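Annex B.
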Amino acid sequence: MLKRIPTRSMNWILMITLAILFFELMFFGGGLFFSALFLGFLTFLGWKNYRTFLGKLLFWIGIVSLALNILTMYSVRFLFIGLLVLFFREYRRSSHDPDYITPRMMKGDREKGEIVTSKPLFQHRFLGDQQTEDMPYQWRDINIHGGIGDRIIDLSNTVIQDDAIISIRHLFGNIKIYVPYEIEVSVHHSTMFGNVSIFHKINKKMLNETLIYETENFQQVKPGVKIVTSVFSGDVEVRRI
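Cell wall-active antibiotics response protein: predicted structure tokens.
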């Protein structure tokens, strides 16, 4: 059922939870920190002496007390309530199970022997959206990490003569990559929560999964683009243009 929850709704829940956690640690962090530290030490002491009755007692007292201590945090309460609201809302809206298409797994990858240093197309940015230029531009491999925002990469405005690499590690937000028809594609995508759409072949909701997809002639025909994405919560779309 979690796979049916819209990604943007999940992103809002997670970002608000992090904001509440931030303020909670700022104003009440001392008590929470020392309490968690003491209970953690108690649990560790019980685990080291778990063979004895006293060790078992200390271990389980520490585990239960630590769990109750975490559940008293307002951020954790909000997360649970938000997930329950989304769960029951999507349960009411769901009418049938989605169809999943299993990608064909391919083996092998080619190593790159040359390294070129130049000004990157994208900068590492924690907040805000980024996209490639609307006018023609010179291609340079992309290797970035980001926090919150969308990333749009349009390969129709550049020329790829050999192989290209797009590597994006992101927290919250969507990634859209537009690829010309004559370019072969390899996609390696992992996410905690989000939807992935690759051409007309794959369209599925993912929950703590990894997906690998290659076009039929990727290993033999050039040019090609290798796309590696890792997103905590967000949608990834690869489309022909």
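The beta strands are 125-127, 130-131, 142-148, 151-154, 163-172, 175-179, 184-198, 202-214, 224-233, 236-240. Residues 98-111 have pLDDT under 50 and may be disordered. Further annotation is deferred to the next reporting cycle.
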